[in-house]
Amino acid sequence: MNRLFLDRAEQNIPPLFSQTVTTEKTVEIVADEKAFLGYSAHALGSMPEVVKAGDRFVLDFGRHCVGKVSFEVRDNGRYLDAPVRLKLKFGEVPYEIARDYATYHGDLCSSWLTEDIINVDRIGTVELPRRYSFRYIEVTVLATPRPTRLSDFSVVCETSADTANWKSLPEGTDPELVEIDRVAAATLRDCMQSAYEDGPKRDRRLWSGDLYLQALTDQVLFDNAMLARRCLYLFAACEEEKEYLPGCLYQYPEVTFDKDMNISDYAMLYCVSLADYYFHTEDQKTAMELFPVVKRQMQISIDLMDKNGIIGMLENSWEGGFIDWAPNLKHNTAVQGVFLYALERLIPLAEALGESETAKAWREAQAKAMDGAKKYLYCEKCNAFINAYDGKQYSVQAQVWMILGGVIDGEKGKQMLKEALVSPDSIKPVTPYMHHYLVAAMVKLGMMEEALAHIKEYWGAMVKYGADTFWEVFVDHNPDVSPYNDPVMHSFCHAWSCSPSYFIRKYFV
Ligand code: RAM
């Protein structure tokens, strides 16, 4: 671990802002075939003042909350001569409350599903020690010796987003965009803690791919440069010799990371994050200090180029790139696109920092990679990037990244993208993360109407389903798509989904 960088990260822990939210409102969670995951919440009334064993109610806080929860437990006139045992179940969406967590059959650890049994030994205020991420709390009274009073459920919501910096969209903005922007901002707000977390429910980690979109979107929403700086230093501190940066890291109890989670495309996007940060803040000191890391990271890919100029895929599945959660997706073409996309942003950074030798070397690498992509990844007769490197796989992901890498443009690019989106044979994006790059590719090709329509169709659909914050995975009409083999494990406030605000505020108002 690089001590200096760790210190810098430590010096940039941002202050948290808090806001208390209380509720007495209850809802009924009902099966609803129109709801995305089959359940919706309907207003019921107020929570009961007095409860007995077996009672159950679902509180609705009216918004997505991240923070610590407290409530009052009192007797109802007679001493409670045994502990009060409550089960509290937390849900970001109604489906989580409806779903019996015991039926979970996914791949990630079930302890992410938030359900706690609390024993209250003494009446008074109960302050729960954990931080929760939720809108709904289901309270079940498992045992109590006598009728008991429960009240004052509240949550102190925390975020490092200074919402005072947030500006509403200009008067007259399309109301659909206003709604999408509002939900996107709430998503980012609740993922902004002492680092940009990917999701406050799960994994609560700093991932470099997520960081890239969060920091970009934060520039147009809350503008927390300190947080961006902290995250850039955190990753730099974890650099290991001749290894791509870890794709994610943990902050507590001390900064650490998993050894086998280096992700090539994420490492390159980390580098782009430094360029974005520098051009936004003009913070020369940070940029100069971290530039050597960026240089070494890009060199790993340059060294992996084969004789055709194509970046080789490392053995480890993560090292070979992430790109999207679409099952069986091949990564080579897309990663080549990420490399070119990164260089296009990094060359101006090198120049701005007076690193002309590096800029020159990067231009050469860019030319070689571009040439290789045109010759070996593109299939002229199908006007698509379908090639042997990806085992002839046809995916929207590969086409998008070739556009973003500048390998194809103009009418040919537009035609290629449109065809890939409608073709029954192509693999389609499944995460809002990948949908971001799809919109970015449309913008790059000047398909502004299509880009706007896509934002409304994709993120707008989540808004129509009642999302308070945007979800980790979303394929409309296909709620079963899950990288973890069970959608209940999904995070429903997921950072990489926040980027519509970036597009809306940069291009559409
Ligand atoms: C999941 C999370 C995270 C993402 C990685 C690759 O665990 O959704 O946000 O970056 O995948």
What report would you give on this structure?
- By secondary structure, the protein is an alpha+beta fold.
- The chain folds into 2 domains: 18-159, Galactose-binding domain-like (Jelly Rolls, Sandwich); 163-508, Glycosyltransferase.
- Helices cover 39% and strands 18% of the residues.
- It has 14 helices and 11 strands.
- It has helices spanning 3-11, 94-98, 175-191, 208-221, 225-237, 264-281, 284-303, 332-352, 356-377, 396-404, 410-422, 432-444, 448-464, 500-507; strands spanning 17-22, 25-31, 39-46, 50-51, 56-75, 84-91, 115-120, 124-143, 148-159, 206-207, 248-249.
- Strands 1, 2, 3, 4, 5, 6, 7, 8 and 9 form a 9-stranded antiparallel β-sheet that branches. The protein has a two-stranded antiparallel ribbon with strand order 10-11.
- Helix 1 runs antiparallel to helix 5 (225-237) and helix 4 (208-221) runs antiparallel to helix 5.
- The protein is globular and about 80 Å long.
- The mean pLDDT is 97.
- Alpha-L-rhamnopyranose binds next to helix 4.
Count of individual domains? 2
CATH topology title of the largest domain: Glycosyltransferase
Structural class: alpha+beta
Q: Provide the helix percentage.
A: 25-40%
Helix count from the secondary structure assignment:
14
Query: Are there runs of 5+ residues with pLDDT below 50, and where?
Result: none
Q: What is the CATH class designation of the largest domain?
A: Mainly Alpha
Overall shape: it is globular
Mean pLDDT: 97
Distance between the termini: 44 Å
Question: Biggest sheet: strands, sense, closure?
Answer: 9 strands, antiparallel
Return Rg in Å: 24 Å
**Count of extended strands:** 11
